[in-house]
Design a protein that fits this description.
alpha/beta, TIM Barrel, about 50% helix, binds flavin-adenine dinucleotide
């Protein structure tokens, strides 16, 4: 167990009663307020169940240069803690946390700092994909970094019309992809709107990944898509990725069957908007929240 050093800046938080109650529900999806809690969740809840951890410090669209620097330092700290605690895992970072909203080069330089650190420690870095405003720049940053660092991967969203051609380009460059459906509200001109279309495109992109020689991740909780991946995936190197607190039994079944499974674990003071998104995804989660508030 690590000695507990000074708390990371995300810890400085005076929660009100209502926030404390909400946080009790949110704990299903987020690890806590600071990097130390995230590391302990990764070691105790995730690694001990045979899964790898992907740690994300919550936050996005940062336009203040000082906050961007603090975020870079948070991720550097997180990587040190992963190493020191012997956690099997890595970090996943949103480009707009590292300055993409400010300017492209700031973001690229910040990612280079993290990538250099990751290489020193033998760790992997995932780049999350955000709204369509940043897709072009995020892919360019990824491919730029990938020329120097091969232990990095990029999320690609199946709801975007453009993703098949992006994926082809990334595969040809040797890149490593995490395939997701996509989580942002986008204008109809950019996305497949119907669930069936998003799933069909997911399947198409998944086939492209299975036909490539590159390492990749199937990041979904959808049973049909997971079954398809299992049937396509014999003798292929890939992993399943799911979010903390969602489909926990399925994760363990996949581990039992011998698949590599990683759990995405967010943490930080921005836990509320993230948890609200998880709650709104499913009616049953809303009931869970109401029940937990009534029981107080
Ligand atoms: C590891 C990981 C990384 C991700 N990274 C990104 C990223 O970089 N960029 C991005 O845009 N999106 C990202 N996402 C989110 C993704 O785009 C989807 O919004 C999200 O995964 C929901 O889609 P789904 O494929 O799981 O299918 P869904 O059809 O939404 O869900 C399938 C099933 O999973 C269960 N389920 C789903 N959500 C919940 C919930 N909240 N509570 C309980 N059960 C639930 C239900 O049983 C549901 O029927 C990521 C997702 C994962 C798993």
């Amino acid at each position: 167990m690590l000695a507990r050093p000074a708390p990371s800046y995300s810890h400085n938080y005076d929660a009100s009663l209502i926030e404390r109650l909400l946080f009790r529900v949110a704990k299903r999806w987020v690890a806590g307020y600071n990097a130390h809690e995230a590391i302990e969740a990764a070691a105790i809840d995730t690694n001990s169940h045979g899964m790898s951890a992907i740690l994300n410090f919550l936050g996005e669209d940062i336009t203040d240069a000082k906050l961007v620097d603090m975020t870079v330092n948070e991720y550097l700290l997180l990587m040190d803690l992963i190493h020191a605690r012997g956690v099997h895992g890595c970090v996943s970072v949103k480009p707009t946390q590292l300055g993409l909203t400010i300017d492209y080069n700031t973001c690229l330089q910040n990612f280079s700092r993290l990538a250099a650190k990751a290489r020193e420690l033998g760790q992997f870095i995932w780049l999350d994909m955000e709204s369509v405003k940043s897709t072009e720049d995020t892919i360019a940053i990824y491919l730029d970094l990938y020329k120097q660092y091969d232990m990095i991967g990029l999320a690609v969203q199946s709801y975007l019309h453009r993703s098949a051609s992006d994926l082809l380009h990334i595969i040809e460059s040797g890149g490593k992809v995490r395939l997701v459906k996509g989580a942002y509200h986008e204008a109809e001109e950019h996305v497949f709107v119907k669930d069936e279309e998003v799933n069909a495109n997911y399947l198409k992109l998944m086939k492209m990944l299975f036909e490539s020689d590159n390492y990749f991740a199937i990041a979904t909780h959808n049973s049909d898509l997971i079954e398809e991946a299992i049937s396509m995936g014999k003798n292929t190197k890939f992993e399943f990725q799911m979010l903390k607190g969602i489909r926990d039994e399925l994760k363990l079944e996949l581990v039992k069957k011998g698949f590599v499974v990683s759990e995405y674990i967010p943490y930080g003071s921005q836990w509320l908007p993230y948890s609200v998104r998880r709650i709104m995804e499913r009616k049953r989660n809303l009931l869970l929240l109401v029940r937990s508030l009534i029981q107080q």
